[in-house]
Design brief:
Blueprint lengths: L4 E5 L6 H12 L11 H10 L3 E8 L2 E10 L4 E4 L11 E2 L7 H8 L3 E8 L9 E11 L4 H11 L1 H18 L2 E4 L5 H17 L9 H10 L8 E9 L2 E10 L3 E9 L8 H15 L4 E6 L3 H6 L2 E11 L3 H21 L2 H19 L1
Parallel strand pairs: 4-6, 11-12
Antiparallel strand pairs: 1-2, 2-3, 3-4, 3-5, 6-13, 7-12, 7-13, 8-9, 9-10, 10-11
Helix pairs in contact: 2-7, 4-5
């Protein structure tokens, strides 16, 4: 057994010193400063999820790490904010003498499920079942440098998108972009668009879940160096045509919920919005946009690189592990089978959209 001492608390029970230690450990980790890994995100989830917990680790009398998770019934556990958190894992001091089994035992869980585990999480990466790409835009050298690279790598894409932007401006009376919009009406509009998009494409509406809706609205007002809500809106005069809500740290903008007014789809307002977000983020000192996992044509066109993220579960003997295996593994394996076969994936997507149209009638 390790010499690490572990106590488990609710997020709101962390004291100011522990929160600051969390920030310091994270800053020293060398990993991208993803806002989902900051204490503020865990604190926000703790307001909405009764099972939210944090394991506080101490070694040799000093703060050695923090492990945020959600505890469910029968010893099941999952990443904090599972289903909406785009970067997951523990915040640990390098060289800490601890195993995943010891940590989970101290937390009272026999299963810890993740779907966006960051690559630096050596404690849990061996338990990953799948690895995905999270697509990123590097704007560390400024927007002009990024656009120049895009002009070389994807000249047709950039030329077409900029032409649509000009055409949209002419037809709709001029465009303006706000990188950090504070109008709550614009956030409500985005959430309405996104809910309709989920239903239209046959997917579950995340905003129909009260805890997710409340979480987003809370984070929209949060302003801290490591984790702040950023609502970006593209307007045609005073009418929103596209919007995005995400989280930012000093150096990373984590893209989260983008959507647009379907009426203007022919102008590709979502693509225009992402270009203006990259420009606005660079001007705000941000060096990277993380567009998250999940293949999409627009991500492939905009990206400059990829970061690996992992999906899977760490297990130790117990009911939670057994329930995870029975309840999740068959579905995950089926999804993986479909995802790796493009024709079958296209058929499945078409079926989802058809189901969404039927539900909307």
């Amino acid at each position: 057994m390790s010499a690490v001492r572990i106590r488990v608390v609710r997020p709101g029970e962390l004291n100011a010193g522990e929160i600051e230690s969390w920030r310091e450990l994270r800053a020293k980790s060398g990993a991208p400063a993803n806002p989902f890994m900051e204490p503020e995100f865990t604190l926000a989830v703790g307001r909405e999820r009764s099972g939210a917990r944090v394991a506080v680790l101490r070694e040799d009398g000093e703060a050695a790490g923090f492990f945020p998770y959600e505890k469910r019934s029968l010893g099941r556990g999952r990443a904090i904010g599972f289903g909406v958190s785009d970067s997951q894992g523990a915040v640990l001091r390098p060289g800490i003498t601890l195993t995943a089994d010891e940590l989970m035992k101290a937390c009272g869980i026999s299963c810890w499920e993740f779907d966006n585990l960051e690559a630096q999480q050596g404690l849990f990466v061996p338990d990953a079942a799948e690895t995905y790409s999270s697509y990123v835009i590097d704007i560390g050298h400024g927007y002009e440098t990024y656009e120049s690279a895009l002009r070389t790598r994807s000249p047709k894409f950039l030329k077409t998108t900029l032409a649509k932007e000009r055409r949209m401006g002419r037809r709709l009376g001029g465009l303006r972009f706000v990188f950090d919009e504070r109008d709550p009406a614009a956030l409500r509009q985005l959430m309405e668009w996104k809910s309709a998009q989920y239903r239209r494409t046959g997917r579950g509406d995340r905003f129909a879940k009260e805890w997710i809706s409340n979480l987003v609205q809370y984070l929209a007002h949060l302003r801290t160096p490591g984790c702040s809500g950023i609502l970006s809106v593209l307007y045609a005069e005073d009418r929103p045509v596209a919007a995005h809500f995400g989280l930012r740290s000093r150096t990373v903008l984590a893209c989260w919920f983008p959507s647009y007014e379907p009426e203007f789809a022919k102008y590709s307002p979502g693509l225009v919005l992402h270009l203006r977000m990259a420009e606005g983020a660079a001007a705000a000192g941000i060096g990277m946009l993380d567009m998250g996992r999940g293949a999409a044509e627009y991500k492939d066109s905009l990206k400059t690189g990829e970061l690996p993220v992992h999906e899977g579960a760490s297990l130790r003997p117990g009911a939670g592990a057994a329930l995870h295996w029975v309840g999740r593994e068959p579905a995950r394996r089926a999804h993986s089978f479909v995802r790796n076969r493009p024709k079958l994936a296209a058929f499945a997507q078409g079926s989802l959209e058809k189901a969404g149209r039927l539900r909307g009638k």
